[in-house]
Amino acid sequence: MRKLWLLPGLLAAAAMLWGGYAVSVPALVLNLAVGWSFIGGGLVAARRRPESRSGHLMIAVGLAWFVRIAGAVENDAAFAVGVATKTLYLAVLGHLLVTYPTGRFTGRWQRVVVVAGYLLTVPVNVGYLLLTPLETQNIVVITETVVPEVPVAALVVLVGVTALGLALLAWLLSRWLRAGSVLRRDLGPVVWGGAAIVLTVVITYVGALLRLPSSVQVVLAWSTEAVLVVWPLALLYGLLRTRLDRSAVGELIVELGAGLPDDLRAALARTLHDPTLQIGYWRPERREFVSADGEVLHGSTYLESNGTRLAVLVHDPALEPELVRAVAAGAALAVQNSLRLEEVRASRARIVEAADAARRRVERDLHDGAQQRLVSVMLALRLARSTDEPGELLAEAQAELGRALDELRELARGIYPVLLTDAGLGPALTSLAERSAVPARVREVPAHRLSPLAEHTCYFVVSEALANVAKHAQAREVLISVRCAAGTVVVEIVDDGVGGANPAGSGLRGLDDRVAAAGGRLVVTSPVGAGTTVRAEFQDLGESFAASVDSDG
Amino acid sequence: MRSVACCEGEIMRVVVADDAALFREGVARLLTDAGFEVTGKVGDAQALLELVRADPPDVVIVDIRMPPGFTTEGLDAARELRETHPGVGVLVLSAHVEPHYALRLLDSDARGAGYLLKERVTDLGELADAVRRVAAGGLVIDPGVVAQLVGRKRVDDPLEALSEREREVLSVMAEGRSNQGICERLFLSPKTVEAYVGSVFTKLGLHQGPDDNRRVLAVLAYLRR
């Protein structure tokens, strides 16, 4: 289908080759090049930016360019068509320039300018055709001809076109001056190419008005056509550069893959060619997006992960939304990774700290408890050796040893719940419930054994949750349940206490870390006055082995 | 040396299984001193089973944790012996105050089984008493284990309806003692003990079993629920 777009050019070529006039090769090539470059550039633009009508207007310029070549056929009707449409392409070009980059009118005056442009081309040409006796001649090929007397009507048209062209130039210039760097980059080839075309057209018309020697006018006409060929190429370059921008996104992703750069803002600004770009990170405590300089930012492009807005980008609105989205998606990935890494680092540090604290506690318990008692026992035995009636001392030593044993047993149990490995989760949780300071009941436990990691995580969660309940909840009863379906383990500890638990408190924080270490998540629901539910959910990735189901539990 | 007679007037024969040689020898010596005949001392469950097969004793005393796995080999051996040699009493020694282990020994028609904390062996009277009760087909549950069951926090605790004395009776009952044993332990007359036991069962809504063992199981099941 797309090959059909070659047809107008081929028809024009045929008209020039076999129309009856001699057309030089450079003229042939130049005419075809101008038409085809507009149509080709327009096709690519229409596909790349379907939301913009500029592509269609570029195609229209190309078609208008080819239509006027009808004048290359040695035939009255063709000559009439050629003359009527001779300057139509200029009107379409003006239309394209005024409405770039959307291709749509955004104001009344734009409409006025464009309509005036169209009125100054075809109707004027048709009027010229009707009112002036003409001899058919090749109007496509630029030749030196005797400059005829310019009639007054034509003079008006020439002045009108010149005025319109100058207005267009002024408007392009002011637009350029007002544009931000991104829009400038976008507008660059359009504005300068367009300005060059308008300028050459204006100069050509002024030249005609001033009746410059025809040799000069020929040069001007040639230069207009040369610019006309180059301009769509400039537009194509612009499009190609968008491609380059896209590959810059790829480079950005590679860069972000190596870790979040120290200055993410600079990296994104570089990729998007928008030095004014700002990035604001979500501050949950302030419920605002805040830049590195502490400025509160409001933007429209968010760095999102699973529906959570991590950061916001404030950028030049002229940036291609698709490109910004791609960059934002890449950056979101990096920011999320870095946040995760930060979380993991913090959680790892807390886990290590908790382990250290636990070891310190064990050391203290051993030192102040069993060790102390053993020293007393040794002392008692030593005294018993040098006394005639050692009975009382020995009994004392025995009693002290008994207490040391009790303490050691409790300590050993706290360090590692042997029941968990020996008998599984059910008996171990039942034992925890039996020792709980707040009445606790185990309502549900899987009948089969889980992986050791899963069982330990469950046990830890229940044990810590029970300790928290005892400390804070003022609960009457705690219910414990563990369910396992399709590899997902859900541990739930529900109390009927005062609620209002702080998930950031050290107890729940430790739980969160522990569950996160098993790849899961902890949800604490604790409305004030309505009890607390601690729910841990994680995947049991370890081998799930069906061990002998304990009759107990 | 005085000897402890079994039901048929013979000296009670005991096997000791523990991987710690010092402990094994110590217990053997204590038992010998107390008038038992220690017919075997072994260091692991396999050797214990072979020994019992070759020459069944009246009672085996076995450590819960032994080679090769150091988990519950002693307990497993005890359960196996209850199947293969129902006439042999089994007393499991353990370092864990865990009702779970104790109750694994006691199925619905359990007899001649016991679970004691290891350190109880230092009280010769208690050890000898436990061995005798197990040999006679009775049940022995360590006071520490019972204390944990009785001390458990409950919502609307039914045990709160019991007087302190009744609770003591309940605990000693759960340790596996007969009324006679409770009398000796709490220095009460048989009639008083009977009255306490009766009121405990009434208050807790329990039925007294047809024998002492059933009674122990009922009490333990009640405490564990």
UniProtKB/TrEMBL annotation, chain A:
Molecular function in Gene Ontology: ATP binding; phosphorelay sensor kinase activity; protein dimerization activity
Domain Signal transduction histidine kinase subgroup 3 dimerisation and phosphoacceptor: residue ranges: 359-418
Catalytically driven reaction(s): ATP + protein L-histidine = ADP + protein N-phospho-L-histidine
Keywords: ATP-binding, Kinase, Membrane, Nucleotide-binding, Phosphoprotein, Transferase, Transmembrane, Transmembrane helix, Two-component regulatory system
UniProt enzyme class: transferase
Keyword Kinase assigned: yes
GO cellular component: membrane
Domain of life of the organism encoding this protein: Bacteria
EC annotation from Swiss-Prot or TrEMBL: 2.7.13.3
Bilayer-spanning residue ranges: 29-46, 55-73, 79-100, 112-131, 151-174, 186-207, 219-240
Domain Histidine kinase/HSP90-like ATPase: 459-538
SUPFAM superfamilies named in the record: ATPase domain of HSP90 chaperone/DNA topoisomerase II/histidine kinase (SSF55874)
Protein name: histidine kinase
Originating organism: Lentzea tibetensis
